Amino acid sequence: MVSKTEETVARSLYANLEGLADGASMGDSDDFQNVLAGLEYYLPAVLGEVHQEWRYESMDGFQLAVARKTGPREAELIGLCILISDQTLTPIHVRLRTSASGDEIEWLTCKVGEAGDGKGGMVRVPYHSDKGSKRLFTVVDRLDSIDWVYSVGFGEGKSASSNDGLSL
Predict the structure, then answer these.
(1) Is the dihedral of CA 98, 100, 106, 108 positive or negative?
(2) pLDDT(167) > 60
């Protein structure tokens, strides 16, 4: 059974992507804002299914360098997420696709946190710092070289390199 949060994310994403060409920016529509608001709850829940420490962590927003349509009903988000526990920033990379009906997430990959000395073994940069803004613009260039602390995925679009399978 699909959670209300997943349904909200899926429907908003489906509506946001409708009519966009592959590679197009997802923009700043109400639907996109609903996607982001829903992901603040949905991603920690999915991460918590595999990584126990995420049962006690949440997200409080995103600073995105990339938010684009990558295929039919598919999107990619790259940037930083705000961790609610200490209002710090850490890298995030999300790819997801809605079902054809648009009411559930068909597949998802999510990577969060660059390995470091902070809480949870992650680099954590204060939210209101110049360092945070500078990191945002380097995430895209460093995407393949980041030593990700947390990774989850489910469905057919799951990254072959992920060891942390999750079936929901």
Answers:
(1) negative
(2) no
